[in-house]
Known about the structure:
Layout (H helix, E strand, L loop, with lengths): L15 H9 L7 H10 L5 E8 L8 E7 L7 E6 L6 H14 L8 E5 L4 H6 L21 H13 L3 E9 L2 H15 L13 E5 L5 H12 L12 E2 L2 E2 L5 E4 L1 H4 L10 E7 L8 H22 L1
Parallel strand pairs: 3-4, 3-5, 5-10, 6-9
Antiparallel strand pairs: 1-2, 6-10, 7-8
Helix pairs in contact: 3-9, 7-9
Amino acid sequence: MERFYPIGTPGVPWTQTERDAWWSQREIVRSYAQEVLQRIEGLGPGFRVQQYGALSIEPQRYPLYAVMPATPVSAPWALVTGGVHGYETSGVQGALDCIEQLSATFQGRVNLVVAPCVSPWGYEVINRWNPYAVDPNRSFVANSESEEAAALMRFVAELDVSFAVHMDLHETTDSDEQEFRPALAARDGTPFEPGVIPDGFYTVADSENPQPEFQAAIIAAVEAVTHIAPPDANGQIIGADVTQPGVIHYPFKALGLCAGLTDARFTTTTEVYPDSPRATDAICNAAQVAAVRGGLQCALQLL
Length: 303
């Protein structure tokens, strides 16, 4: 069997030895403190910044924060999460932009709670997994193996509010096919089957609660900023059937996805494509903001 990843034996799941080898090869390449924490610290007095945990590998370096209104109002609650996969940059920076650009827009109409960087170690090393080769976005389950997911679940439970909206901000990147899916196959001892990375923005709706009007509103809002991913020759995006332009379905809770964290009526996972020649970092961040703006506006109309 041809070796498809530089760690492990093809067809054999990793043991702790391979996980340690994987860990030893990770390098810090950007700063959570400078790129995320400084922006949070610069928010004005209208915001409440709450630390809801810290990563045990370096608690001082990796505190976990959420931002919400200083004074909640009698209005629907909405949750925006970013950086569940730390390497997906616009998920983090787009979430921070949402705090800065949308809070005033929806003031008095929505209690907006934002957890902008759920996986700060992953952000610094630009990786999909956490330090223990666990995918946080498959870990929103009971007895989670992911500290990142477990901390966010505790925080949401302790808030004790009923969320109407939850939007989880992600990217689909060329590195998914080049690095992260091969690594997953190696870790689990399964064959790597090449796929196709879609060129453009799309959303993932909950197959148990798809809310097609909500998804369509997000797509329409983003379309003014960047292009929408077309289906492939099989009418699919990343192996899932396209149900309407730019929308596929996954079972959120069954897969342990962050977007299934709450029992919100309106949920989605956004997927920006930063490697497109038609995209820039600024466009990707703007697309995330447009998605949240369009989603919140639609939800308010339908509630």
